[in-house]
């Protein structure tokens, strides 16, 4: 975790949410530590102090923290509890919290399942199914075909024979080589259905952009996201 990485990931979150047409902006944050080497009490105290430092920056209408590397639903519960000490009970201030605290069914599997739905949408364009494909899964990340990390992508790009490379994380490969405020609760089948619908619609939007510009999926995704943010910026009168 360092400022450059956090800034880059915040920008990627902006474009990702815009591509999916989800009403979030883009932000990122983190603490330089080794969670696996810390006790539960140490993690709770660290999370509490971190929340105290940022409680005026986060909120249901501003930045909404979500679990990422080194965190889980318990971390989100601690953030929610500490934030509520300053602003009153506000379950919508974080996503990924435990079900008992108003979390959404299907949240823990949503990222991986979203990758599956996006992959299905891509393969459908070629008349293929995931079950038809040979694939490699990198540890901790679900992928179809193969994924090379940024450290090895350029060195191995010439040797990759995979038809498709599915990026399941934020910027895992080198380009060169909703919990709601109203608190509505859906059952898990409904959550997964809506997720599939969003992923399919997002893919079709990106595909249309690629056809218009005759560009790659990566460039089409960035262009679609940037265009949506630019339009929203102009409509709100934020132009320079």
Summing up helix and strand content along with how strands pair, one would put the structural category as: mainly alpha
Helix content: 40-55%
Give the low-pLDDT segments.
Answer: 143-152
* Number of helices, counting only DSSP H or I runs of 4 residues or more: 7
Q: What's the overall geometry?
A: globular
| CA gyration radius, whole angstroms | 19 Å
The average pLDDT score comes to 82
Q: Secondary-structure element order, as H and E? A: HHHHHHH
Span between termini: 32 Å
Q: Main β-sheet: number of strands, strand sense, barrel status?
A: none
Oligomeric nature of the chains:
single chain
Number of strands: 0
The fraction of residues in strands falls at under 5%
Question: What features would you describe in this structure?
Answer:
By secondary structure, the protein is mainly α. It has a domain at 107-173 and 187-239. It contains seven helices and no strands. Helix 2 (40-54) crosses helix 3, helix 4 (107-124) crosses helix 6 (188-213) and helix 6 packs across helix 7. The longest helix is centred in the last third of the chain and has 26 residues, at 188-213. It is globular and about 50 Å long. It comes from Vitis vinifera (Grape). One of its GO terms (cellular component) is mitochondrion.
